[in-house]
Write a structure and sequence with these properties.
CATH architecture: 3-Layer(aba) Sandwich
Number of strands: 3
Strand order of the largest sheet: 2-1-3
Number of helices: 4
Largest sheet: 3 strands, parallel
Distance between the termini: 36 Å
Structural class: alpha/beta
Strand content: 5-15%
Oligomer: single chain
Length: 102
């Protein structure tokens, strides 16, 4: 089992109904196979906002999750209210990880 399949399975077990996602990440296909609906966005901060909004309207009773590509997108996902989502580097990618902010 690949790590992305394990993550998708854990999300399903935990009750995730959808995954807010910024393309491209192999997790999108993995959650779709696990019957979790991927909801794509066009900017990382919007994806975090989708997950945050869903968690707020359900009073935290339902799992809300967001995934994105590694690297510079992590900085774009930083929100004014202090949420930051960091994605691990994909082992299939040849690009080096982005330098960490100091």
């Amino acid at each position: 089992m690949k790590a992305i399949d394990a993550i998708a399975r854990i999300l399903k077990i935990e009750g995730a109904e959808f995954l807010s996602a910024y393309p491209t990440t192999p997790l999108i296909e993995a959650v779709a196979k696990a019957e979790i609906r991927p909801v794509l966005c066009r900017q990382e901060r919007v994806g975090v906002g989708i997950a945050d909004g869903y968690a707020r309207v359900t009073n935290g009773k339902k799992l809300a999750a967001f995934c994105m590509q590694y690297g510079p997108g992590a900085e774009n996902a930083s929100c004014p209210w202090g949420i930051s989502a960091i994605a691990p580097r994909c082992s299939r990618c040849s690009a080096p990880p982005a330098p960490s902010p100091r």
